């Protein structure tokens, strides 16, 4: 068991495992001890909050099973994720169906499996919940006006706070059990102040409901807790302090808190081993080398779209080796399958085809994004240690 | 057998098939008669060119088998695509390994299977070809300076023309069989003039090689022939005329021509049936409706990234139904899973959850891009008619 989620030994341990096993590349290796340590670190940083792991971040059954054993609850996005969690031993009452976009049949499927927590953000989904999940606990997601995150959500999810107030009052009229409001600051959020605006708006909604005679119980803060990739991120304690201060300021009675971390649980637990397919230049005077890896945007590195996530990279060359600027691309015949051409990266001058390039903190939003067969390349496999 | 690839009856026929079978949504249905008709239309438009179907556009075995029967050759991007084509009866000599990014083991695999045509664009790949595919026919891809296409390649593939000249002369020294130069104007190119610059540069390379005593045989024009989505595209005849005129102008002796169409063979042969999951508004005064479908960017509509491809949509509502502006999004909990928020789309005011939305001309670059399980949603299945 590792002591700390930020241990520099994590990637060393995983790299040693891969050196020993020498699996075909590319592959993701997940250290389940780090998953457990990250979960415990979140619990310790914000003990007043229940943790609902966002399964979408890494839906490997082994990860889910490890978190069931830790006592985690689960934020699920689909009936597929519900069935996955139940198969790994999760109790139905530990599942929250957090996707506000659901078919009536999906709600009925969840309800039949014992799921009793749902999130909505529209009249249509609310009506379906009243019909197909009667009496369930419901939260309404509102659009929070907060500074942008690393991978912002835009306006896809949530409704205006005024509309959330109306919808939650309606939910009570429809016989549903009103939990309260929820929001999400956006994935990979590095500004602890982002939660402040959402908590203030959630408190406004709760007060408005109380005035209508509808008591609320909880506040779901979503996820967004950041991982330090190439850029440092504030520690969990800073986010927890900001959340705690805003709740104390805006709520007279503290609500039950829920958080839905995904990336913060699994990112640092994963390492992708890739192989250099080719190093080339575009002309005989080109200053940059192009480094083509055997993994790209369509086999697991989807979050390099627009170069949102700049992963840390490691090679077996000594750290003091001479290096130079590179453009890094994937192996497909797709012009968009370029990982980094604007973000400056340098790799050793001695790097050659056949060398490994390890991609650190790659446990979140990677393997499950893999395309089934784009360009004839297979999906990213996952190995486990711990 | 359908008479024309632009027949308005294509989507009617596929929609009738889906109405009759009522498969679970989302799904892609491919009309193999239209695949055949598109292949024949390309052959008729440019009879002097050999057609190498770009398998990546739609690698369904049924599509490949239909094209084997038509006598097509195949542009393959990986050993996976090589094995797929051979399994469908393609002759090894009909395969061209067009991806210039290859591991030595992949080259050896291809050579062992009988593949004898390869494309390269770097010193490293050329050296590997000389070692692992001795005596094979090789083309060098150069970077063409042409107007941008609908989904441009950027600079990922190809080298400077001067470097291509050097590399092809080196290829001859290494005992490889020099085919000539190749280029690609970028996928979904709607300007027939795009080919002109590339053909002029290819002729410059061929003359330079002739001066070095290295004769060349062919010119590979790549793909890029456009599909008319919401915006009309010039007919194949216009592209063929531009190609023919440029070859006549720049080459003293006409080279053997090769084309590598993907989209132009399969796009119009496919239709995706989706279902509306939810219609909502973000506030009680929101002018736009949000329409959430059960397919999105991660289950087949990857080419809606940056709204590059604006598909035509059809519903069962009468075409004269009142309509209004919509933002269209996919079903996952991912903020980037939005199909169209900048491109203006209007859908019927009467559209409701449970209604079908059919996505036309969706046979290219869809099913094979599907993620394995993102958010717990399964990959896009394909059905076949014809």
How would you summarize this macromolecular structure in one to three sentences?
The structure is a homodimer of 386-residue chains. Chain A is α/β, with parallel strands linked by helices and 386 residues long.
Oligomer: homodimer
Poorly predicted regions of chain A are 1-6
Q: How many strand segments of chain A? A: 16
Dominant shape of chain A: elongated
What is the fold-level CATH name, i.e. the topology of the largest domain in chain A? TIM Barrel
What amount of the residues of chain A lies in strands?
A: 15-25%
CATH homology-level superfamily of the largest domain in chain A: Alanine racemase
Q: Describe the biggest sheet of chain A?
A: 8 strands, mixed
Order of secondary-structure elements of chain A: HEHEHEHEHEHEHEHEHEHEEEEEEE
CATH hierarchy, class of the largest domain in chain A: Alpha Beta
Task: Set down the secondary structure blueprint.
2 copies of one chain form a homodimer.
Chain A: H1 9-21, E1 27-31, H2 32-45, E2 49-54, H3 61-70, E3 73-76, H4 79-87, E4 95-97, H5 104-112, E5 117-120, H6 123-132, E6 137-141, H7 161-173, E7 177-182, H8 194-211, E8 218-220, H9 236-250, E9 256-259, H10 263-266, E10 270-280, E11 289-293, E12 313-315, E13 323-329, E14 338-348, E15 356-359, E16 382-385
Parallel strand pairs in A: 1-16, 2-3, 2-9, 3-4, 5-6, 6-7, 8-9, 11-13
Antiparallel strand pairs in A: 1-10, 10-11, 10-15, 12-15, 13-14
Helix pairs in contact in A: 2-3, 5-6, 7-8, 8-9
């Amino acid at each position: 068991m590792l002591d700390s989620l930020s241990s520099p030994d994590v990637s060393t341990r995983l790299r040693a495992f891969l050196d020993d096993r020498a699996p075909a590349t590319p592959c993701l290796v997940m250290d389940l001890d780090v998953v457990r340590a990250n979960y415990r670190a979140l619990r310790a940083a914000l003990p007043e909050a229940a943790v609902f792991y966002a399964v979408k971040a890494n839906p490997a059954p082994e990860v889910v099973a490890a978190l069931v054993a830790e006592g985690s609850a689960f934020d699920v996005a689909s009936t597929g994720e519900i069935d996955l969690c139940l198969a790994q031993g999760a109790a139905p009452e530990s599942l929250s169906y957090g996707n506000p976009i659901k078919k009536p049949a999906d709600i009925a499927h969840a309800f039949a499996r014992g799921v009793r927590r749902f999130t909505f953000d529209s009249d249509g989904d609310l009506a379906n919940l009243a019909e197909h999940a009667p009496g369930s606990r419901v939260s309404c997601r509102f659009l929070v006006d907060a500074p942008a995150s690393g991978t912002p959500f835009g306006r896809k999810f949530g409704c205006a706070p005024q509309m959330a107030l109306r919808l939650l009052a309606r939910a009570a009229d429809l016989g549903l059990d009103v939990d309260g409001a929820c929001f999400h600051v956006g994935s990979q959020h590095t500004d602890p102040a982002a939660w402040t605006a959402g908590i203030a708006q959630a408190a406004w909604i709760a007060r408005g409901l109380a005035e209508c005679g509808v008591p609320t119980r909880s506040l779901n803060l979503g996820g967004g807790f950041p991982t330090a990739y190439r850029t440092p991120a504030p520690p969990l304690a800073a986010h927890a302090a900001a959340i705690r201060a805003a709740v104390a300021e805006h709520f007279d009675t503290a609500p039950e808190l829920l958080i839905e971390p995904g990336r913060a649980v699994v990112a640092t637990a994963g390492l992708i081993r890739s192989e250099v397919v080719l190093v080339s230049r575009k002309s005989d005077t080109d200053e940059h080398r192009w480094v083509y890896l055997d993994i790209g945007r369509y086999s697991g590195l989807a979050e390099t779209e627009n170069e949102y996530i700049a992963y840390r990279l490691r090679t077996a060359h000594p750290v003091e080796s001479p290096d130079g600027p590179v453009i890094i691309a994937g192996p497909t015949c797709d012009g968009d399958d370029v990982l980094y051409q604007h973000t400056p990266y340098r790799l050793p001058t001695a790097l050659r085809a056949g060398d490994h390039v390890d991609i650190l903190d790659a446990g979140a939003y990677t393997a499950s994004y893999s395309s089934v067969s784009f360009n004839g390349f297979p999906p990213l496999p996952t190995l486990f240690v711990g």
